[in-house]
Structure formats: C-alpha cells, structure tokens
Amino acid sequence: MNSDELAMIKKTWEIPVATPTDSGAAILTAFFNRFPSALEKFPFRDVPLEELPTNARFRAHAGRIIRVFDESIRVLGQEGDQEKLDEIWTKVAVNHIPRRISKESYNKLRGVILETLTAVCNLDDSQQETWTKLVDHVYSIIFKSINEEGDAI
Q: Quick one: signal sequence residues (predicted)?
C-alpha cells in the first residue's frame, strides 16, 4: 500500500476502533444473522441470536476481533510491518485450526467485515478498494497459515 492508502486506512479505522466491542459485535451479529450455522463454531453457540448482543462471552470475542485488527493497523507503515502482520494473523489462524473452520466460512466473514466497515465508515469506492486490499492480504496470511499447519476444512 502506498502512503495515501495507509493514511486512509488509519483515518477511517478511527470510527470502528472508537467503540471496539460494539464494532466487533456489529460484525458478528451481521455474520450470524446471515449465516446462522456459523454460530456452531463459536464458544457462545448455546446463546440465542437475540441474546448475543448482551452476552459477555460474545462481547469479549467481538472486542478481540477489533483489537487484532487494531494491532494490525497500528503496525502498518512501520519498519517490518509485513513480518508483524504475518505474525499477528498466523497466530489467529493457528488458534482457529482446532475449530475446523472452512475457507468458505472465513470468506463469508470477510464479506461481512467489508460490508460493515463500508457502512460504518461511509467508505467510497476507492476506500472500499483499499480496505479490500488490506483484508485480502490478511486473508492470504490466514489461508497460508492454515495450509502450512494443516487443512482446516
């Protein structure tokens, strides 16, 4: 990414990171409403959809999603940022391998993340392209890590 793209990512990121748990909850709620069977892979799978927004385990997980993105966005533009991104997202991938999450499910979540960011940050087409580039890079790290550690499908 060039310096203008990095600046745009960091600037637009200020909106969801201002309320990290609520932002993560918005992503997960949209994901589970669209793909209810995905809930089976989560530790709060026993909680009815309508109760998720107030569930402590759900909110904790939602906050962790935003924190890992925040950690990633903070390293962008720093020396060694690609290595740091690899480290951050490889750890996420490896931690999720035991849950046997399919690439299809990861890609469904990817779409919801981008849709939610677009809506929350009021992204224009150019900004959407830049965010897509970042999320695609993150997903390439995840998929590379999963394939190296053992197929998660």
A: none
One DSSP character per residue, 2-54 reads -HHHHHHHHHHHHHHHTSHHHHHHHHHHHHHHH-GGGGGGSTTTTS-GGGGGG
Q: Nearest CA to 48 among 27, 21, 29?
A: 29
3-state secondary structure (DSSP) of residue 43: coil
CA proximity to 87, closest of 68, 61, 103: 68
How far apart CA 137 and CA 82 sit, in angstroms, is: 10
Q: pLDDT tens digit string along 31-90? A: 999 999 999 989 999 999 999 999 999 999 999 999 999 999 999 999 999 999 999 999
Q: Phi and psi for 13 in degrees, rounded to 5?
A: -65, -25
Question: Per-residue pLDDT averaged across 100-108, rounded?
Answer: 85
Q: Whole-model pTM?
A: 0.90
Answer yes or no: are the C-beta atoms of 77 and 13 closer than 8 Å. Answer: no
Cα separation, 136 vs 128, whole angstroms: 12
Radius of gyration of the chain (CA): 15
| 8 A C-beta contact, residue 44 and residue 59 | no
| Separation CA 143–CA 93 (nearest Å) | 8
